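Annex B. Sample input.
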Amino acid sequence: MTKVLSVASECVPLMKTGGLADVVGALPAALAGQGVEMRVLMPGYPKVMAALGKAKAVMTWDDLFGGPASLRVGKLGDGVLYALDAPHLFDREGGPYNDATGADWPDNPQRFAALSLAGARVAADGVKGWSPDVLHCHDWQAGLAPLYLREMGAGDRVASVITIHNIAFQGMAPGDMVGTLGLPPGEFTQDGYEFWGDISALKAGLVYADKITTVSPTYAAEIMTPDYGVGMDGLLQARQADVVGILNGIDGEAWKPPFTKPSGKDRHRAALRREFDLPDWDGPVCVVVSRLTEQKGLDLLLMALPALLDNGGQLVLLGSGEHGLEAAYRDFAAQHPGVAVTIGYDEDLAHRMIVGGDAILVPSRFEPCGLTQLYGLHHGTLPVVALTGGLADTVINASPAGLAAGAATGIQFNPVTAQALAQALMKLVNLYHDQPTWTQMMKNAMAAPVDWGHSAAQYAALYAGMVKAG
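Annex B, continued. Sample output.
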């Protein structure tokens, strides 16, 4: 049995802003059948501490970056959850990274250094007779943990791995905080955790962890290029032998389709149209469940939408993000009867949209893995995706070869432009009207392996190969 401590800033169902939380929440159960015991450590946000109730303290700090703290232990499903109870750092209203106005918490460097330090201490000292073989750090919020682990003298007996969920977020802090964060001054160099005069928590993880994973094989290759590496491409090229791309999966039970045959889609599509008062046009109902940002390509979709609407297609959108895009989609929906827009996020509504939609649109400029296209595949809601990252790895394009082989599960487009997306939407409508082909694509999509089975086995093998003697 390999024992792994997973350290992350989010975990469903306790805290979620994106796919990171889904992955962290799903992995322990997915790995349990692979000979891996994974426990999760996350910050003690108010919702987390309320869920734990009177949880027992198993580790304490008199002063953890400005105040007392303790490690509380509770349950996460059938597994174990550790919460870092540090009220001066985490007991506040707002999001995990931002206040109510959307501004970063000014003490984010200390908050997530504390999370990293707690993870390193659990890895180094163990908790109540449990000691991990591997410390698994997720994104910049846990990026300092491998360095702290090394400084504690435990790096030679506890292995560490960092997963890049999105390399665009790097956990920057001013260089004069080296002492504040308890970092070794001698490592504040180009070969260490220094990045253009600042501290980069993500870079620390990339330098000091034994292994690096990303959430898809294509993204692993992309981030070694200047176009996608966000300044870390040289470092990743130097460490390419230690970089592994492992696709994310989804919880097949939580997202279990209410039908098993393509014909089951019909009544759910009709229900979705009724819910949003959409006319009964003869084209496909497309759905978008996304953050409204340029990274997600939602500005391109606005420009390409006439190609869908003019050919009888419709759009139902759920999301929030950049205020300009929110306003633009509201205005567009007010002028077009085939478009319905909901600003915000509602998990139940997201389910109804994916169940009832014919296609799910994911036109991201870059996408480390993506989960919504996996939810779409699982429900026979065919993805239209940009040819990038995990989207390229999970969708089989309706190319002449893909269609001839009877293997296609969606549509990929490249380059990532409004014109290419418009052409993909017109192709979507044409395929929708070819019912035998469309039905076969739905069957292919619903049979696609999107759960954690294969990926969990890859993680288990990675961990087993990392375990250090002694």
